[in-house]
Amino acid sequence: MSSTKVNRIEGRNAAMRIAWKGQRIGPVPLAVVLGITIGALVSLSVVLVLAIGWFTASSNTQDLLAERFRLMLTVLSAVY
Known about the structure:
Blueprint: H1 3-20, H2 30-79
């Protein structure tokens, strides 16, 4: 192959590499996959624990307020 033909081919390949450079996605390293997966699972577990705590605290607060209201009504009905 002549050097001009090789240069033309390399030039064409270089142009293709430049054209596909932004769109090409290579294989993702295992460390990245594991990091994202473990991070997502930890985040999910934290959100679940916070949600369970929130709903439990909300339920307990409503129960305590209802009990105090009943006690207040009992005291008021005993006075009058």
